[in-house]
Amino acid sequence: MSIRLLIAEAHRLFRHSLRALLERERDLTVIAEAADGRKAFHLAIAHKPDLVLMDIDMPSRDGVTATKLIHSCVPDTRVVLLSAHDDDARIVEAVEAGAFGYLLKDADSPELLRCIRAAARGEHLQSPFMPDRFARRALEAVSQTSGHDIVLLSDLTQREREILAHAAIGRSNKEIADDLCVSLDTVKTHLHHIYRKLSVHGRVEAVLAFLQAK
């Protein structure tokens, strides 16, 4: 079965080159491209790819934030972040956001393809997605994630997570209703339930709580 991929990369030349490389492989299928984090999130919701290759530095929601939203709303889709920088702080941040791996853009083609296939098989952190010296720090960061934050998110239904994720990328209630094919009143009702469950007083506080939680 072919691995379905979404490429989210800000630079057109690199994005097109990456697509050309991947489409030469019989077991890989690129189903969509995005040039910013907002579009990447929408495409992930629409297509539910097996894997997203996500540029960590993108406009309209950076790769880490987009990863958090995708991880929350499409948990079966795995995200591998791409970066030009060997930055341990960003690696830890990416893992905390739910990234399945982290790959430097100067990796050679065989390494990239090996990482993609490893992620599709469910190989996590121990695979060569990131420098070995960062693995322990990343694992420690995940283990130290606030239990309260996890409980907060677990209280939300899948639909409530989707609505809150759409709100987090700046969509209005009307836009959310149109995106999800529900009524405006339904969106408002879900938001009311979200505010109650997260013990917040409004949209801004709810979005902040969502983005700060794992």
| Alpha-carbon distance between the two ends | 31 Å
**What is the third-level CATH name, the topology of the largest domain?**
Rossmann fold
Number of H/I helices: 11
> Any idea of the CATH class of the largest domain?
Alpha Beta
Structural class: alpha/beta
Residue share in helix: 55-70%
CATH superfamily of the largest domain: Response regulator
Gyration radius from CA atoms, angstroms = 17 Å
**Can you tell me the number of structural domains?**
2
Largest sheet: 5 strands, parallel
Form type: elongated
Low-pLDDT stretches are 125-136, 141-151
- In total, the number of strands is 5
Overall mean pLDDT? 81
Spatial strand sequence of the major β-sheet: 2-1-3-4-5
- Can you name the CATH architecture of the largest domain? 3-Layer(aba) Sandwich
Describe the SSE topology:
Blueprint: E1 3-8, H1 12-22, E2 28-34, H2 37-47, E3 51-55, H3 63-73, E4 78-83, H4 88-96, E5 101-104, H5 109-120, H6 132-143, H7 147-154, H8 158-168, H9 173-180, H10 184-198, H11 203-212
Parallel strand pairs: 1-2, 1-3, 3-4, 4-5
Helix pairs in contact: 2-3, 3-4, 3-8, 4-6, 8-10, 8-11, 9-10, 10-11
Task: Report on the architecture of this protein.
With 214 residues, the chain is an alpha/beta fold. It has two domains: 3-143, Response regulator (Rossmann fold, 3-Layer(aba) Sandwich); 147-212, Arc Repressor Mutant, subunit A (Orthogonal Bundle), CATH 1.10.10. Helix content is 55%, strand content 13%. It contains eleven helices and five strands; from the N terminus they run E-H-E-H-E-H-E-H-E-H-H-H-H-H-H-H. The chain has helices spanning 12-22, 37-47, 63-73, 88-96, 109-120, 132-143, 147-154, 158-168, 173-180, 184-198, 203-212; strands at 3-8, 28-34, 51-55, 78-83, 101-104. Strands 2-1-3-4-5 form a five-stranded parallel beta sheet, with helices on both faces. Helix 3 packs parallel to helix 4 and helix 4 (88-96) packs across helix 6 (132-143). The longest helix has 15 residues, at 184-198. It starts with a strand and ends with a helix.
